[in-house]
Amino acid sequence: MTQPILVLDRVTKRFAGHVAVDSLSLVVPPGVIYGLLGPNGAGKSTTIRMIMNIYVPDGGSVQLFGEPGGRDHSARIGYLPEERGLYPKMRVLDVLLFLAEMKGMDRRATRPQASQWLERLGLGDWAQRKVNELSKGMQQKVQFISTILHDPDLLVMDEAFSGLDPVNSQILKDTVLELRSRGKTILLSTHIMEQAEKLCDHVCIIARGKKLVDGTLADVKRTRSGHHVLVNFDGARGDADRIFGDRRLATKADVSGQFAELELAPGADAQQILQALVSSGARLSRFELAEPSLNKIFIDLVGPDAATPAERAEVIDA
Amino acid sequence: MHKIFAVVRREFVERVRKRSFWIMAILGPVFFAAVFLLPILLSGASGHKHIVLVDRTSSGFGTAVAKTLDSAGHFTVERLAGRAGIEDSLRDLVGRKELDGFLLLTDSALETGTAEYRASNVSALEDIAQLREILGRLAVEGRLTRLGVDPGLVAKAQVHFRLTTQKITRGKTTGESAGQSFSLAYFMSVTLYIALLLYGVQVMGSVMEEKTSKIVEVLASSLRPFQLLMGKLLGVGAASLLQFVIWGAAGRLMLSQRMALMAKMGGGAGSGGEGGLFQVPQHIPSSTLVIFILFFLGGYFLYSAMFAAVAAMSGTEQEARQSQAPVTMLIMIAFFSSFAILANPESNLAVALTLIPFTAPIATPVRWAAGSLNWTEVVASLALLIVGIVVVTWVASRIYRVGILMTGKRPSVAELVRWVRTA
Predict the structure, then answer these.
(1) Cβ of residue B214 closer than 8 Å to a chain A Cβ
(2) Contact A97, A136 (CB under 8 A)
């Protein structure tokens, strides 16, 4: 197997009073879009900040490009923090060049690339304007350019799509996909599962600082498929309610009118349910063993209570 | 190094590009020129005065006064006999600005040495001084004549005694007067005080900007906070040094051209007064300039590092303004204690103030300009200042390092100590 781009080995981060990240391990292979998923307050940003060497882990280790993590790798990483920000009074092009210099780039050599990117994202006419004259969306695009201008091998985006309108969101997605096609690795955090499902090859779902599941999106879904049954009725429902309520068959059933999504009980056979339904006189237009949506997996795993974030500690023990 | 340089360049270029930078650069010298020239101009620019002398003397005293005043050039004098009620009509004339004032002379002037001058402007010091001088001289002459003494003889015997002061600095006579070295020391003290505050607050603003705009997170992942802090201090320092050079050049130019300037503006030559406390120095010695710049830079680094730490631990501009009080207080102590130094540059207090890093940036240049320091003491002061800078920067950069990424409530002192120890 090729060497992973990023390895977290049991990293832990404690803030005054609570554990933000609890012995989290994950492996990001090269050339993938990796989704770090979790509800608000799950520890996504803290994890990312440890990867970016902004926080020092209290335990465990971070490995980047096969070496111990640290600021030395910053030239190979592009970082879009959760809280976006640029120098409001600087000119757009100057900000981009300055941030590229912070990544060790040469100012003069970067200039044409910066202009090219601005052109490409429709900001060509704004290069000499001050940042605070731009709209929020335009500033977001400028910041995005700043994270990829130095052509990083790893792109880390915290809450990648927050605050973007659908058009800009699409532009961002297209760019991210193009970067992957060029062999770059993208780690993004989000709590919007629909986006993650469309974009990510790998996912890691965390809640309250702990990993719940990780792997390729397909694997994560497969381990949970076969357990899911989608049923559409065609008029007569037969004895459906009693069958769905049988805990030996289904542990959970979301029924809404003519549609139901069931979770099979351990050891139960979907065929049993089908047989029972048909013999009770139900008419079916669909009976499908399905892969659950990422959203469904997420909610099942995280549970309703984990979605309320733990109190955020703002004081840092660095 | 490349990254520090990029930070330095950004700070410098962004600052120098601002209109306010050049406004400050130009307004600074104008302001200082005003401080030095305005009093001179104001006292000298009273112009020609048309007055009436109401003569109620029986001797020829009134006539003599009118003649002498007229020939002095500054006044046009009309002598009127002192009929009753004349004061009222003259007062009306003054009210209508047809007359500048009138002088009331009686026979008692010679006896008591008193007279009365009523005018629209009695604070024109030059006018009053000339009136008093002429009246006094003529009164003395009149009294001498009455006593049978020849005033010419007395004039011959009189001598105007002049005591010139020459400062001995570090074993050499410098040709500077006491007044000149005092004003130079005073001027440096004020300039250093303003500059340390001004540029320290600029560093603070720069840190706040990065913190409130959240860009600091990207920076912190790209370079060490210490690099960022150093780049910032050097960048703002370079911009402020440029401003200083502009001020210095303008100041020297104004000094060398001040006679011409004053003449052009209508001020009397030498109206600064010879014995006065404030005198424009003839020239500023290079050694003084070097020490001034060295200690300005030292003080700048010392205090700006503290300002940076203050900004880093504050969440908002408002919080920063509150937390900067201890730092501002230190600068103020340094400034106000320089008055004690000026009063007595050799005192134990003055010596202590030159050795304490927090007061040295102002105290040492002031004592040097006042002429009571030799090079050994300057070197000792500078060495201690550098030690102070290293220690303060070390502590400040640790607070800075943790603080720039912190949001939320301001840390307590105990938390600050923990930051410094664990960062």
Answers:
(1) yes
(2) no
